[in-house]
Amino acid sequence: MTETILETQELKKYFPVRSPLLKRTIGWIRALDGVSFAIQRGEIFGLVGESGCGKSTLGKTLLGIYQPTQGKVIFKGQLISDLPKKAARKLRREIQYVYQDPGASLDPWWTTERLLREPLVIHTDLSRQEMDERIRRMIHAVGLEEEHLSRYPHEFSGGQQRRLALARILTLNPDLIIFDEPTSGLDVSVQATILKLFKDLKEAFHLTYLFISHDLSVIRMMCHRVAVMYLGVIVEMGPTEAVFAQPKHPYTKALLAAIPVPRVTPEQEEIVLEGEPPSPEHLPSGCRFRLRCPYAEEDPCSLREPPLEESDSGHYVACHLQEKVE
Ligand code: SF4
């Protein structure tokens, strides 16, 4: 039986645009504009889109770094977006975040041993011996050696820093880990071993992952389901293989067509993405993809925003003209 571990309902995050002269809010950046999805326990759920589409804002809003403007975040059946700060902080310990550059989140003056012990001291009441045991277990689990415990973060390679960041997170027994561009800056050969490590750890520690990436090949390799984001909304969502084999939204088609050869879907019609996405402060009327969409029609595309609707079983698309696009 599946269990929903995390759910968002119409989640919104707007950032104010302030005038330095008038010292007041003159507009809003709609970084998240009504995002709804659910992640099942044990699943790897991918979130993909160009930079600026809102995927990192979503990760940080789930973690409580940003307060939602509107909407709900439900974790293990509890509404965490409205909880008092202390209670939310306690619950969120079970959600951990791996940053794009994990080296930057590690104190350069601390040894590995201290870096791994600190979360245990703050968040648990384990004895010293139990902490030692857990630290040893985690360092081995991520493929590092006990001799690494006396080293400083700058003495590690990029791949090893990711292992260290993971070990630090795992000491707290999280349920859900959010990875933000987890392989950026890594050599391709290192990427493959790190991705395999993620998969192994997921099985060993019964974890659930939210995988945020602009790299479609990583998403395809790792994720059971994927959501495609464009300017703060999900435009397509479904089982990864279905979305890659039969993309239904013009934006998804364009993203897939941009993957370097060999092509993922050779028979697929190619759409070339032209221009930049409009500013999330000045969204076009109707469908927010319409200024770049080769299928756009004045009516209905400029008149109404398309809702995300189920097209095939478990495969959702936000497009008024699905039949024409297919
Ligand atoms: Fe393109 Fe219209 Fe579909 Fe938007 S609703 S993706 S503009 S066809």
Ligands:
iron/sulfur cluster
Number of helices: 11
Largest sheet, spatial ordering of strands: 6-7-8-3-9-10-12-11
Which shape, going by the Cα principal axes?
globular
How many discrete structural domains? Answer: 2
Instruction: Kindly estimate the percentage of residues that lie in beta strands according to DSSP.
Output: 15-25%
CATH superfamily membership of the largest domain: P-loop containing nucleotide triphosphate hydrolases
Unreliable stretches (pLDDT < 50, length at least 5) are: none
CATH class of the largest domain: Alpha Beta
The biggest sheet amounts to: 8 strands, mixed
Fraction of helical residues = 25-40%
Q: What's the β-strand tally?
A: 12
Task: Evaluate the radius of gyration.
Answer: 21 Å
| Structural class by secondary-structure content | alpha/beta
| CATH architecture title of the largest domain | 3-Layer(aba) Sandwich
Provide structural commentary.
With 326 residues, this protein is α/β, with parallel strands linked by helices. The protein has two domains: 243 residues, Rossmann fold (3-Layer(aba) Sandwich); 68 residues, no CATH class. 32% of the residues lie in helices and 25% in strands. The strands form two sheets. Strands 6-7-8-3-9-10-12-11 form an eight-stranded mixed sheet, sandwiched between helices. Strands 2-1-4-5 form a four-stranded antiparallel sheet. Helix 3 runs parallel beside helix 5 and helix 4 crosses helix 5. The longest helix is centred in the middle third of the chain and has 18 residues. The chain is globular, with a radius of gyration of 21 Å. The mean pLDDT is 89. Bound molecules: iron/sulfur cluster. The site of iron/sulfur cluster has 12 residues, from loops.
